[in-house]
Structures are given as C-alpha cells and as structure tokens.
Design brief:
- The structure is a single chain.
- The protein folds into three domains: 4-20 and 145-232, Phosphohistidine domain (Glucose Oxidase, domain 1, 3-Layer(bba) Sandwich); 33-139, Enzyme I, Chain A, domain 2 (Orthogonal Bundle); 253-565, Phosphoenolpyruvate-binding domains (TIM Barrel), CATH 3.20.20.
- It contains 22 helices and 15 strands.
- The chain has helices at residues 33-61, 64-77, 80-93, 97-113, 118-139, 162-167, 186-194, 205-208, 230-252, 278-283, 307-320, 356-362, 364-377, 393-412, 430-434, 436-439, 450-458, 476-491, 509-515, 527-535, 539-549, 555-565, and strands at residues 4-7, 10-18, 153-157, 173-178, 198-200, 214-218, 224-226, 267-272, 289-293, 325-329, 382-387, 423-427, 445-448, 495-498, 519-522.
- Strands 8-9-10-11-12-13-14-15 form an eight-stranded parallel barrel, surrounded by five helices. A seven-stranded mixed β-sheet has the order 1-5-4-3-2-6-7.
- Strand 3, helix 6 (162-167) and strand 4 (173-178) form a beta-alpha-beta unit.
- Helix 19 (509-515) crosses helix 21 (539-549).
- The mean pLDDT is 89.
Length: 569
Amino acid sequence: MIGIGVSSGIGMGKALVKKEPVIKIEKKFIAEPEKEISKLEAAREKGKEQIEALYQHAFSTIGKAEAGIFRAHRMILEDPEFFGQIENKIKEESVNTEWAISEVTKFFVDMFEAMEDEYMKERAADIKDVTGRLIRIVLDVEETDLSNLSGEVIIVAEDLTPSDTAQMDRNKVIGFITEIGGKTAHSAIMARTMEIPAVVGLEKALELISDGDYVILDGDTGTVIVNPEEKVIAEYERKKEAFIGFKEKLEEVRGKDSITKDNFKVEISANIGTPKDVDGVLNNDGEGVGLYRTEFLYMDREKLPTEDEQFEAYKEVAVRLEGKPVVIRTLDIGGDKELPYLQLPKEMNPFLGYRAIRLCLDRTDIFRTQLKALLRASAFGNIKIMFPMISAIEELRQAKSILDNVKIELRNENIEFNENIEVGIMIEIPAAAVMSDLFAKEVDFFSIGTNDLIQYTTAVDRGNGKIAYLYNEFHPALLRLIKTVIDNGHKEGIWVGMCGEVAGNPQLIPVLVGMGLDEFSMSASSMLRARWIVNNLIKSDMEDIIEEMLKLPTAEEVKDFIVKKISLN
C-alpha cells in the first residue's frame, strides 16, 4: 500500500487502530437560548484550560515552536467574530449549542479548505480540532488518550489532530498512519519534529489494518506493509539501521556553509507563515527565510490589520534572524483565499482571478499600508520585498512605483528604512518565466514558486484528485522553464531562488545545483538534509548531465535518469 510519506524513518511494530467515537449532532429547537449561550461559555473556558495544558505539555516534550500551535488554538477560542457567529445562531434560530458550533465550523472550514495554498488549507484542521473539543465538552464525550500506552505501537487513524499528536508518548509511538492529510498538516509537521515516521493519505487504512497487525511503514516512500514475511522484515531492519546512520551524518553539517565540493555556495532557507515559525528556522540552522507568507496577518479577524500590527510582525522576524535575509511576499489573497470583511467577488476560476498583486494594484490602500510596514521593519534587519503572481511588466512597474511613493512618504516623515532594500518577484506564471530575460532587468532577484508554476504550466488543478497524476515536478516543461529563469537571472547579475516544494525534493536538489540555483527555501525540517546533499555534490558533474536530461520527453524518464546518474557518497 502506498500513501504520502511525510516524516522520514522506518516504523515497525504492532498497530493500534484509533477509532473516534461517533458523535451524532442533531438540530434541536431550544426555548431558552440564554442557557445554551451559558453552556457555550462554560465549554469555551474549559477548552482554554485543556489547550493550556496541551501547550505546557508540548512545550516541555516537543519544543516551543510546535507548542505554538496551541497558542493559535487559544486565539480561535478568543476570537470574538467566531464566537459571535455561534451566539447569533443560537439566539436567532433558537438552536442547541453543539448544532450552532457545528454549523459555524462548517462555514469557516469550507472557506479554508477551498484555498489553493496547502499551508492555508491546514487552518481548517486547527478550527476542526478546536471546535471538536468544544462539542465533546458540551456533550460530555471523553477524548481518546494517546499519552498512556502500554507498549510500542504504530497508530492508525482516519486523521490525527494537533492535539492528538501533542499528547503522543514519543517513546511508545513508533510511527503513525492516517487516511487523510498532507505534507503540510500540523500532524505531519509535528511528526517530523518529534522524529516519528509517518505516512498520511493512505486510503482505507482503517479497513485494511486491524488492531495487533504487524505493520512496517516507510516515512520517505509512503510504503505501508501489513503482516510482512520474515525476509521483508529483515530488509526493513537494514533500512532502519541505514536511516539512523544518515541522521547522524546530518548533524555533521550543522553550523557549516551550504557549499559543494567544488566551492559553489548556495543558501538554504525556510518558508514560514507567522513569526512563531522562526523557532523552527533557528532550531534547524537555517540561513534565512526565503518565503514569509503574510496572509495569516489578514485572516481569522474582522478587519484588515493595521500598519503597526504588520510592522511588529515583520520586525520580530527580521530582528530574530539577526541580519540573515528575510524575503517577505506581499499579500497573496483573493479569489480562492476569501476574507469575509473584504467582500471579494465570487469567481468561476479563482486560481486565475482577482488575487495577489492584481488585488493589491486595485486596492492600493491595502497595498500601501503593507509596503509602509515592510519598509519600516527593514530598518531592523535584512528584509527583501517580493511581489507574487506577476504576469506582465506593467504590473511590476506599477507595484514599484507605489513602493517608490511610499518611500517618499516615509522620508518626509523622517522614518528610517533601508534605502537599498531588494525588490523581487515570484516566478509562478509561465508568462513571467518566458519573459524572465526582461523581468531580470527590473528586479534584484527572482524566487521560483514551483507549486503554481507546475499547475499553470501543465493546466492541472492540483486539488483535483482525478488528474493529480498529471501534476508532476519532474515534468520536462517545468525543468526547462526553471533552467530558463535561472540563466536569464544570472545574465543580468541577479540571484535566483526557489520557494516551492521542488526546492526541498532530495532528488531534484542536485539538478537545481547543476542549473545554478542560488537559494533553496523549504520547510524548516528539510534544511539540514538539503545542506548535506549540497555538501556532497560536485556542481560541475551536475552541469554535465543537465543538457542530456532536458532532452528527455517524459517525467518518468527524467526521474529514472536522475536516479541512474546521481549518487551521493
């Protein structure tokens, strides 16, 4: 069976199948809504106590960065708009508390799950975790306890919430398998931090695996084997020993430069979404932030963030990185990422619609406020500004003109900022890649956003399961575009980075080094492995295979070619 490997390592042991209690929520009409609101408030307070206990437990057993998830959960419990909607539903419709919670949850979960960005989609998991807790408290349903296990087990579940993962006894849970989830799920992120092998997205796992079955899971390949033969167990025992040895090798590159054996130096950076994610960057020896998604500042609230609120968030990241580069992407929202308070128009195809730089150039009030906050924060660290979803030179020039006007405004107010702040664009639309020779004359850097570039180049909706097989990071067209962008950037003397998932793909890192990519930005937990790969490469050897590889006609042939031609010692 094959799922999605999200946390490296080999797990081997008995399965513990975690089945959730069936909670049936029925709509009931209530004569005294005020009593239901009191019930809601009591559940809210008890929920805060439970989440605080989870925070303290996670802080002491996993780490500050991962415990921060529960600070986000507490913020949901303290969100006046969210709970205002639940209260209004109880009052206006005279319904029971659990029904009101369930209905409002559906609205917010649907909003986040409809978003294109995987990072944003995971906000839905946070909301479901918190409101599921509230409903259990209201109905007096006990939680499943994963903190008190009698022996080593591999957890098998439909899904695992951040709360479930935080409770796990890391000495007893030697792996987990879920039917749903992806690489950016909180459970996946926490599994990587806790160094627990994990496979998600394994359909029918609960049907195919029973309590007590002997299970092998490979967190790299996504392979799951149930009740294997002895020779298979022996094979995976050898793989497990090899993996432990490799982890020791990764620690050897901590504190070192990311540089090939023939002295080609690159930068290994992290993608983050909030200031709390900086802990992960520092703990994993990151050389900077290659993508700071600013959308979270605008979400889960009733109105736009103020200039000062944004300034403080950007400043915090810049200060904590102590001069290391911080590439901050301007607002990438709209279309598929709805903000209820902006009342954005519904669209037939939001992926190609009114979003990102298109929205900002139309709503210059929003854009100017963000740019002003970014410039102010640039006085406190090495901030770089990046514009997303640029498809035409006119858009770039208009964005730069607005930035120049904001600079004049700050000078007139005697407010300090970095006069030489670098400005770049995300290359995520084929038009920008094709015209990268011209764009390179007008910016300080490129960052290739492969997640969207694959989608737009291959005309594949990556959220559509029926055609997901066509969404392939080894597609020859994608690799040709990447090579074109890197070459065109270098011809004009600018650096070229990458902030999509491809940047952290172990098989493609050598190819990207051969193409001359200057900066790799990925999830924080992947950075040491990426550095180890870079440090064991000879760039000139990689250069020699690029031309031959780019002549191959299919993704499968490209992948096979890479496996045959590249080996790391």
